[in-house]
Amino acid sequence: MPREFVHFSIIGTQKGGTTSLDCYLSQHPQICTAPQKEVHFFDLQFHLGQDWYEAQFPIDLTNPFERHQTIGEATPYYLFHPCVPERMATLYPNLKLVIMLRDPVDRAISHYHHAVHYGFEPLGLEAAIAAETDRLAGQATQLLSGQITTSYSHQHHSYLARGRYLEQIRCWEQFFPRSQCLYIHSAEFFSHPERELQRVCTFLGVEKLHLPDYPSHNLGSGNSSAINPSIKSQLVEYFRPYNRALFDHLGLDFGWLT
Known about the structure:
The protein is of the alpha/beta class.
């Protein structure tokens, strides 16, 4: 039987502003978020069970002041992991999904620098991009079939694949209607954090939240303007058709075609 314990999830994308949004929402008196960002239940810890997941939220449902709080978390790998949409829909079919999308060129570069910083990536940027197809070959299919339960490269080396947003969104649309999804352009979120935060609050059905300041969290160290112009140009051209298809599908234009 589906339960209504968890109400929303910030499902991605990695390096798209999810840490900042989670931090802002954690300060809302009507919202309870998991103390540890990236619970990784639906992707890496699903075997631990639903009771374990719900125990990650510090809330006492017997307390009338906490019982009606809106509960949610942020794990950006959820958007990309092929098993998560069905798992999430099975347990919480009415969940609201917040999907933050960043220019895939900037996202890929930031992701790469993140991987290097944490020791996940030994290759140079150009070599890492060239190796991605072989590294990820068959990984999503094996995850879906249960042949493997985790994939190091799928999680850490998916620089291009994570930026092909429409492929991921179509998987989610098989299980969640558009009415339960809110798409946020990461650049707009960082430029106008209060405005975009109010959109999220309205979507979640809670009062608007006004904070004294809106610091950015976990932006990463990668600057796309500092990389080899030839590599950046190749990335722009690579993502162009995927971006155009995404904009046509969503009826939105985030301006990533130039």
